What does this fold into?
Amino acid sequence: MPDKIKLKIGTRGSKLALAQSEWIKVEITARHPDVQVELVRIKTKGDKILDSPLSKIGGKGLFVKEIEEALLRKDVDLAVHSIKDVPSELPDGLYLPVFPKREDPRDAFISMDYNSIEGLPKGAAIGTGSLRRSAQLLHLRPDLDLVSLRGNVDTRIRRMQSGDLQAIILAAAGLKRLGLSSKIRHTFAVDEFLPAIGQGALGLELRKDDERVLILLGFLNHKPTELTIKAERAFLKRLEGGCQVPIAGHGTLEGDYIILDGLVAELDGSRIIRDRVKGSKDQPEEIGFILAERLLSSGADRILKRIYGL
It folds into this structure.
């Protein structure tokens, strides 16, 4: 008998990252029984530094750089990323050709005692590690006390359960993938609370010269997810966004059209610049670029310059 084909998946070691990579592994082996898949855990800078907000650590690719380096060294054959962690610029020799079907892209409100943002008492402490979430929360409720929150999903939930936080905001997708949907008190509509670029979506990063892996994994690509993610990431790229900036965006596919919503916010939530663009699904990157230009010309350029200290 011929030897089994072996594939090594580079992944972060968090419970959520492993659940996501394990799902990819199951899908591959179900489709290709002759393929042996191994998960290789890789610790990233973002996993090592847990006592500082992401916006203070600086740099892009905090949760992917070490995995990409392993991919380039050929220590692993593919990487499974949460798309929202992946910078808009990829290293030479790597690309993102496969986007599995997106999970729920929305943000979720979690609390022991309250059912919604509106129900929180004045001055309530709410935990989040995201400037995007902070800005939108303060826009809705400027009286809230926002507390910087890092760590994996279990750590954040425990922090809330200990009593020093009245609520936390997490991605619905992560909770669902971990079987924690019952923790969700309220799921924000995209219209009231815009998600992070790529939230809920995974991306498989490969070496451009490794066509063998692309052939094996091509079946996992979900075209509507691919098109909307490309529009969102083009929007982010034009704005040169990263963890230091309150930028949000979300695309949906309706027939032959992509509808893309995006926003840039002041850090304190005092001003949110938001717009929407509809365009042909055949030009997802152009849609993202057009939306970014519209926001920039509406004042987002001045917000971003202040935040970047330019």
The mean pLDDT is 92. The radius of gyration is 19 Å.
